[in-house]
Specification:
five-stranded mixed beta sheet, alpha+beta, eleven-stranded mixed beta sheet
Length: 444
């Protein structure tokens, strides 16, 4: 591994996104994209010590693992990185780069505040667009950009002991499309995503090698919710675990990836989560915005969608990243439980080589919990063989139980009951301690 620190040299966001639109419009007339000049302060490659990269500087990491499409990896690690940090994968737009995404968004400064790590993948092909169209990109482990990005996540997780239950993706335009693809290909890796001006997973699919799909960009590709959901499920056949939550942003006047793609994404992700397309909550966070939530009413609903009236493709603005972090649960606010805000009781019915465990989780806080992961460690020799009320991964050791589609919201004072069956080698005890979304719960 080699790494090169990149001192902060932020470019104005407005000029970046205006350049994005200007560069993308020729695609709609089938002209070729040319590669842009390097971002101000583009880092050069140089060797540094193995292991952790320099803190508080954008750093390029090389030799990070399998990388079939020759992506580049940039990493930002704050001085105050937390133990078992979360990872936010921030994915750039067509003609952009990892350093452009770093310069044009505020995820690094938010990382300074909250202690997570930001990973910036960067395309090297001439268009500087992510591959969201090839058959290889649209299946788990199939190759192309998603495999390279997964390798970057694995490298970061190994190096920093990152929390595998708190890995997130967000992107703008081509990066928003890749956010949809990553969540579809790797539902067991990502906890949530946020897509700014994107299209549904699989909408851009082509078989002729083209990177551009005019029917999809023009908003003429429409499918039923189940059809869209099946496209996602087909990326990882047989997977039955929890699915990442999705936040979708789109402007009504988007003339590059047109507005019907907003509704098609809602169809897709509500079907994937098995929740109603009738909003559970609708509000106006600020003038011209309409926010709808599906399958839950709090900050961590399974699907959240924000429509911006009269706004074009140049959608992203300063301040939106903070709203993304609230949806992700990384801003230390909202419904995340605080110490003493949850209680867990567990009982076991055992026999010679097996057991069943009944677990009751109670929200003792004052805010609803929307989306939960219950963590616990199985006693040595126990292996989960089945369960109900949640998805259990892995089957032994440190286990995470992730809510089902129907019980993800727990109101203040309310409880949810789950359970599992396990084999054992003599120790049939219940787990001794539990955490809810990373925070310790009281027992009994």
């Amino acid at each position: 591994m080699s790494a090169t620190p990149h001192p902060k040299a932020r470019r104005p966001l407005g000029s970046l996104l205006l350049a994005l639109v200007a560069a993308l419009l020729p695609l709609l007339t089938a002209t070729a994209l040319s590669a842009p000049a390097a971002a101000a302060g583009e880092p050069s490659r140089a060797a540094t010590r193995a292991g952790a990269v320099p803190a508080a500087a954008l750093t390029e990491v090389t030799n990070f693992g399998t990388n079939p499409s020759n992506l580049r990896m940039y990493l930002y690690v704050p001085e105050s990185v937390t133990p078992k940090p979360a990872i936010v994968v921030a994915v750039h737009w067509c003609t952009g780069s990892g350093p452009d995404m770093y310069n044009g968004t505020e995820y690094d400064t938010l990382a300074d505040r909250y202690g997570f790590i930001v990973l910036y993948p960067s395309v090297t092909r001439s268009s500087k667009c992510f591959d969201v169209s090839s058959p290889q990109a649209l299946r788990r482990g199939g190759g192309s950009d998603p495999v390279g990005i997964k390798s970057m996540i694995d490298w970061t997780t190994r190096t920093y002991g990152a929390d595998t239950g708190r890995i997130f993706a967000t992107g703008i335009s081509s990066g928003a499309m890749m956010t949809n693809v990553l969540l579809g290909d790797y539902p067991d890796v990502f906890a949530a995503g946020a897509a700014f001006s994107g299209v549904p997973f699989g909408c851009f699919a082509t078989t002729d090698g083209s990177e551009w799909n005019s029917a999809c960009s023009g908003g003429t590709v429409t499918r039923t919710p189940k059809e869209w959901g099946d496209v996602v499920r087909g990326a990882y056949p047989g997977y039955t675990g929890a699915r990442p939550r999705m936040q979708i942003w789109h402007g009504t006047q988007d003339d590059v990836l047109r507005y019907p793609n907003f509704g098609e994404q809602i169809k897709q992700w509500t079907n994937v989560h098995g929740v109603s397309r009738t909003p559970a909550a609708t509000d106006t966070p600020q003038s011209g915005w309409t926010r709808t939530r599906y399958g839950g009413t709090g900050d961590r609903a399974p699907v959240e969608a924000v429509s911006l009236q009269g706004v074009g493709h140049n959608l992203y603005a300063q301040g939106m990243a903070s709203r993304v972090l609230t949806f992700f649960g990384l801003d230390n606010s909202g419904p995340a439980p605080q110490p003493g805000a949850c209680r867990v009781t567990a009982s076991v019915n055992a026999w010679s080589t097996g057991l069943t465990a009944s677990v009751t989780l109670t929200n003792t806080g004052t805010a609803a919990v929307d989306g939960w992961k219950l963590g616990f460690t199985l006693p040595a020799g126990q292996t989960v063989t089945g369960g109900w009320g949640a998805t259990y991964t892995p089957s032994s050791g440190s286990v995470t139980a992730t809510n089902a589609a129907y019980n993800g919201t727990i109101a203040p004072g309310a409880s949810v009951s789950i359970g599992y069956q396990a084999s054992h080698g003599g120790n049939s005890a219940a787990p001794a301690a539990f955490t809810l979304n990373g925070t310790a719960c009281a027992a009994g």
